[in-house]
Write a structure and sequence with these properties.
The chain has 146 residues and is mainly alpha-helical. 67% of the residues lie in helices and 0% in strands. The N and C termini lie far apart (86 Å).
């Protein structure tokens, strides 16, 4: 310890060894976690998606009809906000859907398979769709439901 050069060399050697150990630990950590520069740019990037909802006057009028007539039953059954009604319209067509809204009792009484299936899916509710809608009101309601 009398020689300051030896002391400086020991400190430099110890510091170098510690630095090498830290670099090795860092590299092992990166490899173990499979982190690369390209991963950060591609797979970790999650774009923010903002859904803009534009409403037309027809949509708003259809929503008013739904709230006034349909919301009581269908809100309880979770039919609001899901794709079920949209899929129903796509599967059976708009004309049948209009018939289902206005003449459900007739469809059920005639043993219409699809009407019976829908009634069963909604626990065979006592309520039926037998609304006295005009063609315009039906189109407004469907505009809202789609």
């Amino acid at each position: 310890m009398n020689n300051p050069k030896k002391l400086i060399l020991r400190i430099a050697a110890t510091t170098s060894i510690i630095l090498i150990i830290l670099v090795v630990v860092f590299i092992i950590t990166i490899k173990k976690n499979d982190i690369t520069e390209s991963d950060k740019k591609t797979s970790d990037y999650q774009p923010t998606i903002v859904k803009t909802v534009t409403t037309t006057p027809e949509f708003k009028q259809g929503k008013e009809i739904f709230i006034a007539d349909c919301n009581v039953c269908h809100k309880r059954r979770g039919a609001i906000g899901n794709e079920y009604i949209k899929l129903t319209i796509e599967n059976i067509g708009i004309n049948y859907f209009k018939l289902f809204l206005t003449k459900q009792d007739s469809l059920v009484n005639s043993k219409d398979i699809y009407a019976l299936k829908l009634k069963e899916e909604f626990n065979n509710m006592g309520n039926s769709h037998n609304f006295n809608y005009s063609e315009n009101e039906l189109n407004l309601l469907i505009e809202y439901l789609k």
